[in-house]
Write a structure and sequence with these properties.
- Keywords: Receptor, Signal.
- It comes from Ottowia thiooxydans.
- The protein has 325 residues and is α/β, with parallel strands linked by helices.
- The protein folds into two domains: 163 residues, 3-Layer(aba) Sandwich (D-Maltodextrin-Binding Protein, domain 2), CATH 3.40.190; 99 residues, Periplasmic binding protein-like II (D-Maltodextrin-Binding Protein, domain 2, 3-Layer(aba) Sandwich).
- The chain is built from twelve helices and ten strands.
- The strands form two sheets. Strands 1, 2, 3, 4, 7, 8, 9 and 10 form an eight-stranded mixed β-sheet that branches.
Length: 325
């Protein structure tokens, strides 16, 4: 009887041990999810995070709380997540700049995006337009390239600052088109676009959401889009790739990530919830209207995107000698 009792207790203990992972998985999440956005409230990334986060919270039956931790081009927010507990309750709203550009701009970066995060989902692409002041005598990319070559480096372009997508995209354009231009960096996209409309600078790469109102009013003219294939967001707009700059592509992106070591079972739960939110028809309509191309899929897609974008922009940064100051 004693041996039978011991075997029964051992069997019960083994059964509980085997059941623990399943029980813990079923219990996740049992409290709110914290999503760190490394930019100020009110911007495009913040609006995206709040809209999609709300729907994810409904899927998980737990609220998704947005925490804006801006500074250092996204590095402050990223580092706060890297140092958090890897339990699936603290996530990072990553951008292409924070995940694939900053490691090449900041020599003392205290983390490695490809080693210190667990990707959850590639949330969206952010295409850009190549826009010019209406005074520029070019309606197509090929006409612009011809005009630039006739100017012998006298023409200038605006950017939102050193190392930003508008800067890197222009440097890639210079190399692809074999032209020379002067870089005029600004402290943000808004003042750059203001001077572009005033004619103080001639051209700029800018996100669709930033410039659509100015295109509609005739204050700026778009002559190309930076996706490799024509975008469903603007199917009438030719790509730089198809108009002669073979292989040209400049696309910002959003991704959701967790700290390294977060259990795979929890990554899977979060991946399903975000994919369901990103496929919601209402969200797709609302975000497509402001130039956001929603994605989704398995975590591996974000892993690969981070790697290829890092290699691409790292080479441009080195060749052009770009720094973050």
């Amino acid at each position: 009887m004693k041996h039978l009792l011991v075997r029964s207790i051992a069997s019960l203990a083994l059964g509980l041990a085997c059941a623990t992972p399943a029980l813990s998985q079923q219990a996740f999440p049992s409290s709110p999810i914290n999503l760190v956005v490394p930019y100020p409230a009110g911007g495009g990334a913040d609006a995206f995070a709040r809209l999609v986060g709300k729907r994810v919270g409904e899927k998980l039956n737990q609220p998704v709380l947005i925490h804006n931790r801006a500074g250092a081009s996204g590095n402050i927010g990223a580092l706060s997540v890297v140092r958090s507990k890897p339990d699936g309750y603290t996530l990072f709203f990553g951008t292409g700049v924070a995940l694939s550009v900053n490691p090449h701009l900041f020599k003392d970066l205290a983390f490695d995006p490809q080693k210190d995060f667990e990707p959850i989902v590639h949330a969206a692409f952010l295409p850009s337009y190549l826009v010019v002041n209406p005074s520029v005598p070019a309606n197509t990319v090929s006409e612009l390239v011809t005009y630039l070559k006739s100017q012998n480096g006298k023409m200038n372009y605006a950017s939102a600052g050193n190392g930003t997508p508008s800067h890197l995209g222009s440097e890639l354009f210079k190399r692809s088109a074999k032209v020379d231009m002067a870089h005029i960096p600004y402290k943000g996209g808004a003042p750059a676009l203001t001077d572009l409309m005033a004619g103080r600078v001639s051209m700029m790469f800018a996100y669709m959401s930033e410039v659509q109102a100015f295109l509609d009013s005739g204050q700026l003219r778009a002559i190309g889009i930076t996706t490799r294939e024509r975008s469903p967001l603007a199917p009438q707009m030719p790509t730089l790739h198809e108009t002669g700059l073979k292989g040209y592509e400049l696309i910002g992106f959003y991704g959701i990530l967790a700290p390294k070591g977060t259990p795979k079972a929890r990554i899977d739960v979060l991946n399903r919830a975000f994919n369901e939110a990103l496929s919601d028809p209402d969200i797709r309509v609302r975000l497509s209207a402001i130039g956001v191309d929603l994605r989704g899929g398995r975590p591996e897609a974000l892993t690969q995107l981070m790697r290829t974008e890092s290699q691409k922009w790292g080479a441009i940064i080195r060749e052009a000698g770009i720094t973050n100051d």
